[in-house]
Amino acid sequence: LHSVPTRRSADLRRASVDVDVAVMLTYRPDGEAYVAAASGPNDGIDRAGGFPGADVARFVRPGLATARLEAPLQRAGETIGLLMVGSRHVRGFEVDDVEMLSSLANQAAIATENARLQERLRELAVVAERTHRARDARWPGPGARLRQHEVAGRRGVAPGRGGRRGTGGGG
Questions:
Q1: What is the tens place of the pLDDT at every residue in 129-157?
Q2: Are residues 81 and 55 in contact, defined by beta-carbon separation less than 8 angstroms?
Q3: Radius of gyration of the CA atoms of the chain, in A
Q4: What's this model's pTM, rounded to 2 decimal places?
Q5: Of 32, 43, 42, residue with least CA distance to 7
Q6: What is the C-alpha to C-alpha distance for residues 126 and 105, in angstroms, rounded to an integer?
Q7: Beta bridge mates, 23
């Protein structure tokens, strides 16, 4: 997705909450989660989800999220992902941390939805162009009919008729 947060912006957000790891998961249409953005130590994130655990824990090296805070990404009442920050140290999170993560999750949900809608518009534009080209190939426009008249006139054939001039029976 082109509009989701970049690694640099994820690093800045992670630092502002004073955590060791930050992960944004989004869900595919089949419900499977994948890492859309992440920040933390190079060996701390497994985008394939190979670490032990369930949900977001399988994407983060054990020990990096001993204390964690999660906020859902929601669109029209539907959960489309999850934003999680974690600390390797046992700690509590302040109300400001919860509010900031909630605000970031809302922004991430908007960016994710915007990217999804832009992709859908690109798909629809391709379909519309293919439909337009197919229609033009089957039913040539007025320019093609004019060219057909010009060629037929030079051969002495009445436009729109395949036969030779003057043949048609009748006596």
A1: 998 888 877 776 665 555 555 555 666 65
A2: no
A3: 30
A4: 0.64
A5: 42
A6: 32
A7: 38, 84
